[in-house]
Write a structure and sequence with these properties.
Number of helices: 7
CATH superfamily: Winged helix-like DNA-binding domain superfamily/Winged helix DNA-binding domain
Distance between the termini: 35 Å
Number of strands: 3
Shape: elongated
Oligomer: single chain
Order of helices and strands: HHHHEHHEEH
Strand content: 5-15%
Low-confidence stretches: 1-9
Helix content: 55-70%
Radius of gyration: 21 Å
Structural class: mainly alpha
Largest sheet: 3 strands, antiparallel
CATH architecture: Orthogonal Bundle
CATH class: Mainly Alpha
Mean pLDDT: 89
Length: 125
């Protein structure tokens, strides 16, 4: 009987009894972010969920690259890369620098590199 109960607890994702912890709820509410920031964060994670965009960000951790370089690295068209980079730029994950006729992309700031790095560390655990 004990074995059956421990198996049931192990597979169950919910509480066995209903208990409300007001202090934990109050703490969580005090740390809530506003709707605008939450929506923006959600958009960033959606963008990072695309493997090709994530590969671009990982490549840009080593320094700036132009669309031609990124397309060659990924083995896709320059048009496809430009489309993905536009989405990343709209979310302030990458920035551009023009040098004559070349447009170079780089990570917007160190936070983007940290976000990708922490995600990768977690995935590799």
């Amino acid at each position: 009987m004990t074995t059956k109960r421990s198996t049931m607890l192990k597979d169950d994702d919910g509480c066995q009894i209903r208990v409300i912890h007001p202090e934990r709820i109050a703490q969580a509410r005090s740390n809530m972010v506003n709707g605008r920031d939450l929506s923006r964060l959600s958009s960033i994670f959606k963008a990072l969920a695309d493997p090709s965009r994530l590969l671009m960000l990982m490549a840009l951790r080593d320094g700036e690259m132009c669309v031609c370089d990124l397309a060659a690295m990924l083995g896709v068209s320059e048009s496809a890369v430009s489309h993905q980079l536009r989405r990343l730029r709209d979310l302030a994950l990458v920035r551009t620098r023009r040098d004559a006729q070349c447009l170079y992309y780089s990570l917007d700031d160190a936070h983007v590199a940290a976000l990708v790095g922490v995600g990768l560390e977690h995935a590799q655990e």
